[in-house]
Amino acid sequence: MATDVFRITIHMVSRLDGYIAKKDNSISWFETSDNYENGVTEQDAVEFLRTIDCFIMGSRTYEHALELSKSYGWVYGDVPTIVLTHRKLPVNRQNIETYLGDLNKLVNERLKPNYKNVWLVGGDMLTKDFIRLNLADEIRQSILPIMLGDGTPFFAQIGQEQALHLKNVTAYKSGMVKLCFEIRK
Fold first, then answer.
1. How confident is the model at residue 44 (pLDDT cuts 50, 70, 90)?
2. Domain that holds residue 44
3. What integer pLDDT is reported at residue 45 of this predicted model?
4. Which of 74, 60, 67 is nearest to 28 (CA)?
5. How far is residue 157 from each of residues 56, 75, 129, 132, 147, measured CA to CA in Å?
6. Number of domains within the chain
7. What sign does the dihedral 22-14-183-1 (CA atoms) show?
8. Residue 30 has what DSSP assignment?
């Protein structure tokens, strides 16, 4: 989604019951097998990732991505990645930096002047903060066809009502459904 307008997109993969990770933080449930004959073929991930200018993630998501990169490589490539954290974390790539500070300042002084298509790719607490501070523009939720009943919820205690506008729904051959909502401001 290339655009000339600055956007922050919250993206999350969840199960149908709304959880984004098991209690042990594993995502083994990503490997579900289903077939929806009327679905479309999923977009080439490498091509799609080229449309994103910058990633934002929380420290737990970053640590999980680091662990997965041992088997699958760093899936975010050379795209600038900002990890929001209060802790000292290992950073072994030039395109990754950590940030501790005001989120409004990060968005308005660092992100808006330099990027157009920024994706927040993990963290239920980070999602809540970006929604509460009115910093996110849209939510893209990819829902996998499985329910496990407990774990980490995608939207945990947002603490406010938030109006959304459905922009798009896509059903894939894998059984995954992608919902795209504009956040009403």
1. low
2. 7-183
3. 67
4. 67
5. 21, 29, 11, 11, 20
6. 1
7. positive
8. G
User: What is the full DSSP assignment across 82-122?
Assistant: EEE-SS-----STTEEEE-S-HHHIIIIIITTT-SEEEE-S
In a domain, 1, yes or no: no
The tokens for 66 are 């680091």
CATH number of the domain that residue 163 is part of: 3.40.430.10
User: Chain-centre distance of CA 14, in angstroms?
Assistant: 10
Q: 3 pLDDT exceeds 60?
A: no
* Residue 14 is assigned to a structural domain of this protein: yes
Helix (H) / strand (E) containing 41: none
| 3-class DSSP assignment, residue 54 | strand
Q: Do residues 10 and 122 make contact, with C-beta atoms less than 8 angstroms apart?
A: no
Query: Three-state SS string across 124-147, please?
Result: HHHHHHHHHCCCCCEEEEEEECCC
- Per-chain mean pLDDT for the chain: 88
Q: Cα separations (Å) of 46 from 83, 153, 165, 185?
A: 21, 28, 28, 32
Tens-digit pLDDT profile for residues 98-135: 999 999 999 999 999 999 999 999 777 888 899 999 99
Q: What is the pLDDT confidence band of residue 48, given thresholds at 50, 70 and 90?
A: confident
